[in-house]
Specification:
This protein is an all-alpha fold. Helix content is 74%, strand content 0%.
């Protein structure tokens, strides 16, 4: 049955607008990575659940903060794919959601212990600093590398004895985070420059940033493959070979969100390797 005129004019739910403004794909990906890592290192269920909840709250706060901070630029470039520009959610609602998620993230993070909590909150603070200031500087890559690099430490520091993760795991996560930054920015470089955003990818340009994104993701996989003690598994060599192809292709002028989605796909394969390594 066709929709009536009244139904056709029914605005989307504000809840749907909030969900769209939180950057749902990367939020879900980082949260799932934390859950997989918590399971791999043997976190008990209550502690693992709190860990995952803290990461989810932190990621939600970062996503909402990002869309709210970018509202002026998104309006200027006509980003109607953004809920705030499309009018499906109000700026005040996104601001309240970002602050609420951030406040919730604090006790959830500290529930894993003061050191673990401080590490996670440092990563969340780095992401907020990116949104509010650093994305327009040559240090735009640093918050991504720091936040991703600290995530494994947050998970392992909640274990008995509060152990730090091995250096190869921290390096792999930091390289993946930096690569995700370059890949995520690629489709928006021209719009960013037009609205005054001059982070490192914008300064390097599309072609060099695409190549660097591929190399960083490849470096992340290499750290996971050769970093752990013992012989490299056949899966590890295969993953490294498969990752090399998109890393080389990234030097071309790939459009759209393909580089970022490819980075997420490689991250998923990296998580599978990581689970095998830590078991």
């Amino acid at each position: 049955m066709p929709a009536t005129a009244a139904e056709a004019r029914t605005p989307p739910s504000p809840v749907a607008g909030l969900l769209g403004a939180c950057h749902p794909l990367p939020t879900a990906a980082v949260t799932l990575f934390a859950a997989a890592l918590a399971a791999a290192v043997g976190r008990a269920l209550p502690g693992a659940a709190l860990c995952v909840a803290a990461v989810a709250a932190g990621q939600l706060s970062v996503g909402w903060c990002n869309d709210r901070a970018d509202l002026r630029r998104d309006l200027a470039t006509g980003r109607i794919d953004k809920p705030l520009v499309a009018g499906t959610v109000t700026p005040s609602a996104v601001t309240a959601a970002a602050l609420g998620a951030l406040l919730l993230c604090v006790p959830l993070s500290l529930a894993g212990g003061p050191l673990a909590g401080a590490v996670h909150l440092t990563g969340v603070a780095a992401a907020w600093a990116y949104n509010l200031r650093l994305k327009s500087t040559a240090a735009s890559w640093l918050p991504y590398a720091l936040a991703f690099g600290l995530l494994p430490a947050y998970v392992t520091l909640g274990l008995p004895g509060a152990p730090w993760p091995p250096p190869w795991l921290t390096a792999a996560a930091a390289l993946l985070g930096a690569g995700a930054h370059f890949a995520n920015v690629l489709p928006d470089i021209e719009d960013d420059l037009a609205t005054g955003v001059a982070g490192l990818p914008q300064r390097l340009g599309l072609r060099r940033s695409a190549a660097l994104a591929g190399l960083l993701v490849l470096g992340s996989t290499a750290a996971l493959v050769v970093g752990p003690p013992g012989p490299v598994s056949p899966y590890g060599w295969a993953l490294l070979a498969v990752t090399t192809a998109p890393a080389l292709l990234a030097g071309g002028r790939l459009g759209g969100r393909f580089p970022f989605h490819a980075t997420l796909a490689v991250a998923g394969a990296d998580v599978a390797l990581l689970l095998a390594e830590l078991r």
